[in-house]
Design a protein that fits this description.
about 0% strand; mainly alpha; globular; 8 helices
């Protein structure tokens, strides 16, 4: 959660970080790990603070973000497995949300996360490229919606006086999001395989 006045800078960072991940994630994998570690740490830490404590949310987001970035960067191989697991969980959530309403069963998320982690370790280069391309594509979409003043995000922000990021749950009226995610992710994968992620 972030105070509403920080919504625009956070959305810009999401779009820029997502573009970096989508189109150059393999070459800059440690930086991408740091960005996603920061985002995850900031989301988790700031959500523990009360919405009326804006300063506390900001401090918690910064401290949690730095801790998350350090953990992801220093745990490089664990980070690769986590990226694969995260991609598996993302596929479970997006696929389930596209087919049905509500959250997917925990077993589905766990199985896909485990398969993603195993695949990431066996096929590191390709899984890193695909995971960073598709993870970056989703981050671009979420950040772009926040930049446009997405109505659902605006309602959530005005209701509790805080901006809440739910990156894995598209609004029901936005059924185009998984299709756009796949298209942008495929473009990012092609760019990385053909240009930025080539072996030296």
């Amino acid at each position: 959660m972030l105070p509403p006045s920080y919504e625009l800078p956070a959305a810009i960072l999401l779009v820029l970080g997502g573009a970096l991940s989508c189109f150059a994630g393999y070459r800059l994998f440690r930086l991408v790990l740091a960005i996603y570690g920061f985002l995850l740490g900031a989301m988790l830490a700031s959500s523990m603070m009360g919405v009326s404590n804006a300063a506390g949310m900001i401090v918690a987001a910064i401290v949690g973000g730095l801790a998350g970035a350090l953990i992801f960067v220093f745990a490089y191989f664990v980070g690769i497995a986590l990226v694969g697991a995260g991609l598996g969980a993302l596929v479970a959530h997006v696929g389930w949300g596209y087919l049905r309403t509500g959250d997917p069963p925990a077993t589905t998320v766990i199985v896909l996360a485990i398969l993603g982690a195993i695949g990431a370790m066996l096929l590191q280069r390709y899984v890193i490229i695909v995971a960073t391309a598709f993870g970056g594509a989703w981050t671009i979409i979420v950040g772009g919606l926040a930049l446009q003043g997405d109505r659902a995000a605006a309602r959530a922000a005005s209701a509790g006086d805080a901006w809440i990021l739910y990156p894995l749950t598209p609004a029901p009226a936005q059924r185009w999001m998984p299709i756009a995610w796949i298209v942008i992710g495929l473009i990012g994968t092609a760019v990385q395989l053909g240009v930025t992620g080539k072996k030296r």
